[in-house]
Amino acid sequence: MGLPEASIMNDLRRWRPHGIIATIPNHKLEKRFQSLKVPLVNCSSNCSSAKLHRVITDNQAVGKMAATYLTAKGYKHLAYCGESHMGASRDRQNAFIKHAPATVHLHEDHCVQEQVGEVGWRVSDQDDRLRQWLIQLP
């Protein structure tokens, strides 16, 4: 997500929302939204600010739930594909491994993200590495 263009911010000012729930991943974007002088709720786990209320995912619970669910379904060979440099993925992975009854096959950093602009991201294609990993799984 890029920073809101001036025209969008002007539209928001004219609309006069009672509040905004948004993914606000950095302080620059936070300041733009704060200029609207309405209550804000941040859904990003990347940017914590004492000034904003936040609603974020419990990533450890997600990892635990996934391992518990797959195990209850009778699956014996579990695998986790994630990106260890991303805190959310790392938290899910650790909980998944902790709650899985058997060895978990890992594939980390299967895609490389390149930053585009100040807050936008583009995924670089790493499909061959991921495909090879999937083929070798039991």
Question: What would you note in describing this structure?
Answer:
With 138 residues, the chain is an alpha/beta fold. The protein folds into 2 domains: 6-54, no CATH class; 59-136, Response regulator (Rossmann fold). It is built from 5 helices and 7 strands; from the N terminus they run αβαββαβαβββα. The strands form 3 sheets. Strands 1-2-3 form a 3-stranded parallel β-sheet, with no helix packed on it. The protein has a two-stranded parallel ribbon with strand order 4-5. The protein has a two-stranded antiparallel sheet with strand order 6-7. Helix 4 (87-99) links the parallel strand 4 (78-82) and strand 5. Helix 3 packs parallel to helix 4.
List the helices and strands and how they pair.
Blueprint: H1 6-15, E1 20-22, H2 27-34, E2 40-42, E3 53-54, H3 59-72, E4 78-82, H4 87-99, E5 104-108, E6 112-116, E7 120-124, H5 127-136
Parallel strand pairs: 1-2, 2-3, 4-5
Antiparallel strand pairs: 6-7
Short recap of the structure:
The protein has 138 residues and is α/β, with parallel strands linked by helices.
Level-1 CATH class name of the largest domain: Alpha Beta
Beta fraction of the residues? 15-25%
Estimated structural class:
alpha/beta
Average pLDDT: 82
H/E topology pattern:
HEHEEHEHEEEH
- Count of individual helical segments: 5
Q: Tell me the CATH superfamily of the largest domain.
A: Response regulator
- Largest sheet data: 3 strands, parallel
Detail the poorly predicted runs.
none
Report the helical percentage: 25-40%
Q: Using the coordinates shown, work out and report the CATH topology of the largest domain.
A: Rossmann fold
According to DSSP, the number of beta strands is 7
Q: What distance lies between the first and last C-alpha atoms, to the nearest angstrom?
A: 38 Å
